[in-house]
Specification:
Blueprint lengths: L5 H11 L24 E6 L4 E5 L5 E2 L4 H13 L1 H4 L16 H5 L11 H8 L7 H16 L5 E2 L1 H10 L1 H12 L7 H12 L1 E3 L1 H12 L14 H14 L5 H7 L4 E3 L4 E6 L3 E6 L10 H14 L5
Antiparallel strand pairs: 1-2, 1-8, 3-5, 4-5, 6-7, 7-8
Helix pairs in contact: 1-13, 2-5, 2-11, 5-8, 6-9, 7-9, 8-9
The structure holds glutamine.
Glutamine (GLN) binds next to loops.
Length: about 300
């Protein structure tokens, strides 16, 4: 039995939807500027494969920075912890996700963690593949297994729109290339990175990904491993320390579960021993988190006593 009924989810989503008025859709990626701020949806995928959902559940969106958790999982599977953490650190940054300043300040010049853009670019650079297409396919294959849905792909318009305007991400990548943290073509890296960010799904598909992490990397239906438990543990730890950008500390106090957000307005939340939550609401607060998402997580975590602390 799911710990959240559809009725409860509907009730709480209705309750917090108004907060969309306090936020603003991301517009630095032109294709995201068209998102309707009033759209909202939530889904909870429990281990008995029940998926309860509320709001505009069939609406599809891009996962943006939530992909950072998935590329990290893939790089850890492909190369192991010591190789990955020679290129990216393990500490929170307390700066905005796009910030460049600590790259120059911190020794030995590796990005602070894989949840900020610089760190994610370094991790994406490690994905196996001779071409950018092969790297994107590696990523899509993992996401399709996580969602148990072979139809998952990326939104070409959003990927293109970000690729054409990703000047800051290019700067981060060129800076790291100069310092030997990333190798190969920056343009190809940006191609992979913008496509991984543009992977598209609805809130139910996203909730299943969260449920796999909640189930220590195993498929919530069959219990077959998709991600090794050690990798799932590392990913969840980063979600706690850095998953909500420079709001992660406050979020840990107010909500207290591993979570990751993306500038499209999507958030995943991992509920230990129970399942995975996904929320979509494109109006963002100053840190780039969905305002509806944060309010819903605060309400549910309080109501259900979800905090792991
Ligand atoms: N916070 C995010 O979701 C950022 C992802 C976005 N594609 C970027 O690189 O800017």
């Amino acid at each position: 039995m799911s710990i959240i009924s559809e009725k409860e989810l509907n009730y709480w989503l209705e309750h917090v939807r108004v907060y969309a008025n306090n936020g603003k859709v991301a517009d630095y990626i032109p294709a995201l500027a068209n998102q309707q701020p009033e759209i909202s949806a939530a889904a909870f995928y429990s281990f008995d494969s029940e998926c309860n959902s509320a709001g505009q559940v069939e609406y599809t969106f891009t996962i943006q920075s939530i992909s950072k958790v998935l590329t990290l999982a893939l790089a850890l599977i492909q190369h192991g912890e010591s190789a990955v953490f020679s290129r990216v650190g393990k500490e929170p940054s307390s700066d905005p996700f796009y910030s460049i300043r600590k790259l120059e300040l911190e020794e030995p010049g590796i990005p602070l963690n894989p949840m900020i853009n610089a760190g994610a670019l370094a991790v994406t650079n490690m994905i196996r593949g001779r071409t950018s297409d092969e790297m994107v396919n590696e990523m899509l294959e993992l996401v399709r297994r996580l969602c148990d849905d072979q139809s998952i792909t990326y939104d070409e318009d959003v990927a293109k729109s970000e690729f054409e305007t990703a000047f800051l991400n290019r700067s981060l990548a060129y800076f790291m290339k100069q310092n030997g943290i990333i190798t190969g073509s920056v343009e190809e890296l940006l191609d992979v990175y913008t496509k991984q960010c543009a992977i598209q799904m609805n809130v139910k598909q996203l909730a299943r990904i969260a449920a796999v992490f909640a189930n220590d990397g195993r498929d919530p239906n069959t219990n077959n491993p998709i991600i090794p438990a050690t990798v799932a543990r590392v990913c969840k730890t980063f979600m706690v320390t850095c998953g909500m950008y420079d709001f992660s500390g406050t979020f840990a106090i107010n909500v207290g579960i591993p979570a990751k957000s993306g500038v499209s307005g999507a958030i995943i939340g991992i509920v230990k021993n129970e399942g995975g939550l996904a929320i979509f609401g494109p109006a963002l607060d100053d840190q780039g988190n969905s305002v509806v998402g944060i309010h819903l997580l605060e309400k549910l975590a309080q109501e259900k006593q979800w905090s792991i602390f």
